[in-house]
Each structure stands twice: as C-alpha cells, then as structure tokens.
Write a structure and sequence with these properties.
By secondary structure, this protein is mainly β. 10% of the residues lie in helices and 39% in strands. The N and C termini lie far apart (69 Å). This is Parallel beta-helix domain-containing protein. InterPro entries: Beta_helix, PbH1, Pectin_lyas_fold, Pectin_lyase_fold/virulence, SO_2930-like_dom. Keywords: Signal. Residues 1-18 form the signal peptide.
Length: 414
C-alpha cells in the first residue's frame, strides 16, 4: 500500500508519541524455562515484577514450593497437563505446592501439579483469578494427602475451568470465602469432597463431573469465618458414584465442623447456607443420599451460639428442581463405619423401606425463634418420583420422640 506524504507524516507522528508497544498478550516480559532449571524458576517466582508471564516447557520439574506475592497481571503457563508436570513429592520445607497471595490478575494454565504435603495450589486474597487446564493430583487418596487440590480463598472473580482434582483429603476443588466464582467443565475424582463451595457468594457450578469421591458436591457455610455465603447455582453437572470412605484428616479437616462429617454415598450436601439452586443435574448412584440438606445443629448442638453477621446455622431459600436422581437399592459399605452414615442407616431402618434420595434434617429456624411455622426457611422442591423425600426429625434423633417422616407436601414449590 502506498501512503501519501500527509498520511505518512501522521503515522510517523503517532508512532513517536505512542508508548512502548507491549507483546500481543499484554505482558511486559515473558520468561521461558525448561526442566533442570528449577532453581532459576524458584528465583523468578520470588523476583517477578508486574505484568510478567512464565512459560514452562514440557517435562517434569521437582520443587519444594513456589510462591508469588503482591503482584499484578501475572500468568504461569505450561505446555499442557499431560506435558508439564510440577512434582512436589520431595518437599523438605513448606506445605503448599504453589502459593499465590495478593495478586491482581492471576492466570495459571496447562500443567499438572502433584504430591505436595499440603495444598497443591492455594490462591489467597487475589482478584481476577483464572485456573484453567490444571490437574491437581495425589495418587494415593488417604489422610496423608494435602487438604485441597485447587484452592482459591478470600478471592474475587474466580474462574476454575477444564481442571481435574484427585486424592484430596478435604476437597479436590474448593472455593472459600470468595465472591463471584465459576467452576465449570472440570472433574473431581477420589477426593473426600469432589467440589466444595464454602462461605462464598455469587457462585455458579456447571458442566462438571464429580465422581468416585466420598461426597460429590458440597455447599457449606461454617462459623467463625470472614463472610456468609449464598447465591449459589449448580446445574448441568454429572454427580455420580460418590460412595467411597471418608479419609479426612483428624484435626482441622476432621473436626465437628469439617468435611469429616460427610457421609460416604452423598451426591450433594447443603449445610447452613442460603439462596441455593440445584437444578438440571444428573445425580446418580450416590447411594446414601442424592441430596442432603442439613443445618449446623445437625453436627453441633451449640450452633445457635455462633450466630452472627457472618453465620446462620439453618439453610434458607433452597430450590431443588428438575434433576435426574437415581439411587441403588443398598447403602455403600463405607457408610456403616461413618458416624453420619450410621444416622442415614438408622433413618432407613426407622422408615422400614429404602431411604429416599432427598434427606432433610428437619431443623428449621423454629429452633431459634421458638415458633411452629411450617417450612419457615422456604425449602422448595420440584422433583418427580415416588419415595422422594424424608424429614429426618433431626432434633429428636436418639430419643423416644424420634419419628422421621416422608411427607413432602410442605416443601413442594407453590
């Protein structure tokens, strides 16, 4: 193309006044490393400046840990989860594999992270977080595994996409105390909880597969944390065959409030949170309860003493509709050896027939207000099928008054 003199002069003038051009992806510098350069990579993490990208070539890397703190616009990339492997199995210091804190604009993609002593990827107090095509794996799924595979906490604007988590002794994919989060097109297998959304607001969980865990998908609020959760939607997920033993650690993960309470064989557990919609999911062969709704009182009689602006022990505004739900005719064997599982077995025995797939502990805000309202917490169920629901009469379990019932009418959506 030929330029006229005036046009060429304008182009040159514009070029002279323009700032220094950045690479097409917007990062000011890109550092590329290969296997064998672990020392350089560790140093690069510690000395990285804003608007930097690190690319890790295909191969296996061995690290103690990696840390990024107080940065902006950072990307860590690999060649793909089956090609770039970050191995933390020989850790001699630190618990976490990769720790990210106070980063505004963080992306990590295209790698497998495996075998740390603690959490594999923890992203703390960060904004605009993208975790894509990351596999977080402990090959041996037991209490020696770290707690969380993929673990954004106290973050805002989080996307977890096309990820895979395996072997976590708490949750494979966990979003905690965060605001605005999406978990999609991801898989979790052989964890205690496949995916957990805890004390988080405005989250969507869709197009995922959670299978072979103790429990598939958990929406929890716990006390003594920074915020109350709510506004959670889970849809178009395939949640199946979550019937494995609970191997949560004692102590922080296996306490009264921890995921150690999740009974083997639960597809979805909703506990002490609000404004949750569970719909258009396939919840199949989770053979203790397809969906369990419980209050904080179910696991702690003193839950009422913990009420404050950040915690309310009773779930409210729960909408369950249009899911495909199927259960086998018998409990999974691990449920008989678990404290909460034994309650589910006792419910079935009391009913004299197979436990229904939707289990509600029946503990409402009436226990706090001392009223006798019917469905005061707006539990709304729109599902088809026979033997669909049980109110476990949780306040009277273990007493002569205990009488679980199957009347779903008060909870059918009006």
């Amino acid at each position: 193309m030929k330029y006229s003199i005036p046009l060429l002069a304008l182009a040159l003038a514009a070029g002279c006044s323009a700032p220094e051009k950045q690479p097409a992806d917007g990062y000011k510098q890109t550092l590329v490393f290969g296997p064998g350069e672990e020392t350089k990579i560790t140093e690069a993490f510690l000395t990285l400046t804003d608007s930097s990208a690190i690319e890790l070539k295909a191969g296996t890397y061995k690290f103690n840990n990696l840390s990024l703190v107080q940065l902006k616009h950072i990307r860590i990339s690999g060649a793909g989860p089956d090609k770039t492997i970050l191995d933390f199995s020989t850790q001699t210091q630190g618990g976490e594999g990769i720790r990210v804190a106070e980063v505004k604009g963080f992306t990590i993609n295209g790698m497998t992270i495996r075998e740390s002593k603690g959490d594999l990827l923890k992203v703390n107090k960060s904004e605009d977080v993208v975790i894509r095509d990351v596999h977080a794996i402990w090959q041996v799924a037991d209490s020696t595994s770290g707690g969380y595979g993929i673990y954004p906490v106290l973050c805002s604007n989080v996307l977890v996409e096309n990820c895979y988590a395996q072997g976590a002794s708490d949750a494979g994919i966990y979003v905690g105390q965060s605001n605005k989060a999406i978990v999609r097109k991801s898989k979790a297998f052989k964890n205690v909880a496949g995916c957990e959304i805890e004390n988080t607001t405005n989250a969507e969980v869709y197009d995922n597969e959670f299978y072979g865990n103790t429990a598939g998908f958990l929406v929890f609020d716990l006390p003594d944390l920074s915020q109350r959760g709510g506004q959670i939607k889970a849809y178009n997920n395939y949640i199946h065959d979550n019937n494995e033993r609970n191997f949560a650690k004692s102590g922080s993960f296996g306490t009264t409030w921890g995921v150690g309470n999740a009974a083997p064989g639960c597809g979805v557990i909703i506990q002490a949170t609000s404004d949750v919609e569970i719909y258009n999911n396939r919840i199949i062969n989770n053979n203790s309860a397809a969906i369990a709704m419980v209050s904080g009182f179910f696991v702690d009689a003193k839950a009422g003493e913990k009420v404050n602006a950040s915690y309310f022990p009773v779930s409210q505004n729960i909408f369950i509709h249009d899911n495909t739900i199927e259960m086998a005719d018998a409990f999974p064997e691990p449920v008989y050896h678990h404290h909460t599982g034994q309650v589910l077995v006792a419910i079935e025995k009391a009913l004299g027939k197979r436990i229904p797939p939707i289990v509600y502990d029946g503990i409402s805000t009436n226990v706090i207000t001392q009223e006798q309202k019917i469905n005061p917490d707006s539990i709304c169920i729109r599902q088809t099928g026979d033997n669909l629901f049980v109110n476990a009469d949780g306040l009277n379990i273990g007493t002569a008054k205990w009488k679980p019932g199957t009347d779903i009418q008060p909870f059918i959506c009006k």
